[in-house]
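job 3f2a | input accepted
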Amino acid sequence: MTKQTLFEHILRKQSFLCTGLDTDIRRIPAHLLDDEDPVFAFNRAIIDATADYCVAYKPNLAFYESLGAAGILAFEKTVAYLRTHCPDQFIIADAKRGDIGNTAEMYARSFFEHSDVDAVTVAPYMGEDSVRPFLTDGRWVILLALTSNRGAQDFQLTEDARGERLFEKVLKKSQEWANEEQMMYVVGATQGRMFLEIRKHAPHHFLLVPGVGAQGGSLAEVCRYGMNRQCGLLVNSSRAIIYADSTAAFATAARREAHAIQQEMAKELSRLRQT
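job 3f2a | predicted structure (275 res):
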């Protein structure tokens, strides 16, 4: 999926919502536990209920790997279901991989040749050779830039002798490896006005923004400081949507929550057109 195609989907759906499939088998409704594959059954119901209001889905690999082979199978079935039933959805494997070149190449094969996702989140700490194997034709790298967890300040906000912060160095250096047609950045929704700093260095890139909803990020603030002329945002909400209800009506509740976020996003896109 190209950057332009993604933007066209955003305009058509009036949404830049990414639903995070952080599916914890300990939190899904009890009646699904009798299913042959309860994680996939949950994901399928969530996808069917929310696809009208989303442009992307982001399975978090930790929730699948924690279940061993059965979890990996549920992940693969989820991706295959999206490919078959929702071919216009942008699929992100939230794996946060980052290793030396030959190992990174194996990770890239796993996600792009075997699982057939559109993008993988990658940690940039080991530099260019740990990222480049993911830069294959038609696929995306989503590089961790400025996250919203408390520990982000341990490294990401540290300054060198010239006053340049580490996340700024990541943004500038990584653009020597790929342009905005192949690379996005992860920026936490709780960063607020820091999006202005991100946009100084990456004005045209898409940003994957987790943290709206259960983590307390403000969609209005993200849009005010982070939106560009092509929207430039994929805002992720996970728990607030998929765990909106724990009964047999969980999918209906998830659809309601996704629709509410989409309606807010439509208003933000309307403001963008007016500027």
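job 3f2a | Residues 208 and 234 are 5 Å apart (CA to CA).
job 3f2a | closed
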